[in-house]
Amino acid sequence: MGEARQSHHRRWTRLMRLPVALGMGLVLAGAGDPARTAATVSTAAQQTLRGWGMSLAWEANVIHGGPFCAARIPDPAEQRRTMDLLFGNPARGANVFGASSNSAPWWMTASGCASGAERGGEDSLRADAAPAFAACLAAVVGHFRRKEGITFGSFSPLNEPDGACRVAGSCQEGSCTSLTTQEAVIATLARALAGTGAAVSGTEANSMDAMTGYLAQMGAASLDALGQPF
User: What is the pTM (predicted TM-score) of this model?
Assistant: First the structure.
């Protein structure tokens, strides 16, 4: 690994320490006795949290008393609960907003279905559609900034790119994406988001091992294009 790539990898490893530390912070001190628990707190400085929040894709309906489901229909009328909660958050003090995409639109996928490719492990997004996909995401960011007064600070374009189980016809959207296609989307989206105030966030893998594995294999240009780790 060259010196430049080593430097990038060290930077992203440092940025990912805090989630790992938080995950390892709780220690059970008495198996079978829930009253006997202890928490260890590290005083070593890692990084500063800009905020702590949640995804509105799933939880917005629950907060409004509806079913626990993702808002995955591209019709604002069908996403009323999500939009109501999003637009009301600034008044409640929220000032950091991040966007993510669970799947490319069906007409940009290889299978013609937003649930995934025909076979598990294959790219859902067509390689030739990466520029159009990035332009679509940038247009969404621009709409919310100009028309709705919401400025997204980050955008994660590919949800769980390691999700090989997401295939066409399944009950949930999917974005299984090879490393090569991930890097193409990251680079294209970074250019499309220039001047919008939003940085590319990634990689939104399903596990820490998959995420660190992707980052370790990415080239320096892709790591530079990422504004923040997911």
Answer: 0.74
* Structure tokens, 12: 């992203």
Tokens for 185?
């989307």
Per-residue pLDDT of the chain (230 residues; tens, 9 = 90+): 566 556 555 555 444 433 333 333 333 334 455 555 556 667 777 777 777 777 777 777 667 665 554 444 455 565 777 777 788 888 888 888 899 998 999 999 999 998 889 998 999 999 899 999 999 999 999 999 998 888 999 999 998 999 888 888 887 787 899 999 999 999 999 999 998 889 999 888 988 899 999 999 999 999 999 986 54
Residue boundaries of the structural domains of the chain: 96-229
CB within 8 A of 206, min separation 6: which ones? 160, 162, 163
Environment class of 32 (CB within 10 Å of its CB; exposed 0-12, middle 13-18, buried 19+): exposed
- Three-state secondary-structure class, residue 19: helix
Give the 3-state secondary structure percentages of the chain, helix then strand then coil, rounded to 5. 45, 10, 45
